[in-house]
Write a structure and sequence with these properties.
Elements lengths: L1 E4 L5 E4 L4 E6 L5 E5 L4 E4 L3 H16 L3
Antiparallel strand pairs: 1-2, 3-4, 4-5
């Protein structure tokens, strides 16, 4: 799970394994599309969302 921030400033957590793609929506927000078709607009940049998802994946492999 990774923590992200909605455009209204509220933090929430999303399952990083359900992310289908991430794209810049505008200069100030990013769209995170999930496998089920839901799209979430967040404050984090594309590189930051990717970094958090990679960090999450690495943390899973560390427990093996």
């Amino acid at each position: 799970m990774i923590q992200l921030t909605r455009l209204n400033g509220k933090a929430f957590v999303v399952n990083a394994e359900l992310i289908r793609y991430v794209e810049a929506s505008s200069e100030h927000d990013t769209c995170v599309a999930l496998i089920g078709g839901e799209k979430l607009n967040v404050r984090e940049t594309v590189p930051e969302v990717v970094r958090r998802a990679i960090e999450y994946g690495r943390s899973l492999r560390a427990f093996r």
